[in-house]
Specification:
Shape: globular
Largest sheet: 7 strands, mixed
Helix content: under 10%
Order of helices and strands: EEEEEEEEEEE
Radius of gyration: 13 Å
Strand content: over 45%
């Protein structure tokens, strides 16, 4: 299973970006997709998650109301729409697949990870 995140870049505060994460390979079960981010010099943190059907979504408090996660299972792709970006949103963003049980807030619950895409927000 491989994940490829894309869509990062340099933007100004207040701008928007949409990240994409394409999943390839066989996953023999439904799965939750998650987004995490790692700011420079800090630990990786949970950003958002979405269930298989899209009915379930969850967000970190810091991004609620600004970010929206969605998925297209026909394309095996998950998206993270980021609006009203702030300098503190700058980080490397990672997508991940959670196949087994466990909290979506914990990195350890996710089995497969992409390489990450860099988001830089200038003030």
């Amino acid at each position: 299973v491989q994940l490829q995140a894309s869509g990062g870049g340099l933007v100004q505060a207040g701008d928007s970006l949409r990240l994409s994460c394409a999943v390839s390979g066989r996953i023999l079960s439904t799965y939750v997709m998650g987004w995490f981010r790692q700011p420079p010099g800090e630990e990786r943190e949970f950003v958002a998650a979405i269930g298989w059907t899209g009915d379930y979504t969850d967000y970190a408090d810091s991004v609620k109301g600004r970010f929206a996660v969605s998925r297209d299972n026909t394309k095996n792709t998950v998206y993270l729409q980021m609006n009203s970006l702030k300098p503190e949103d700058a980080a490397v963003y990672y997508c991940a697949v959670k196949v087994y049980s466990g909290s979506v807030y914990r990195m350890e619950s996710f089995t497969f990870w992409g390489r990450g895409t860099l988001v830089t927000v200038s003030s």
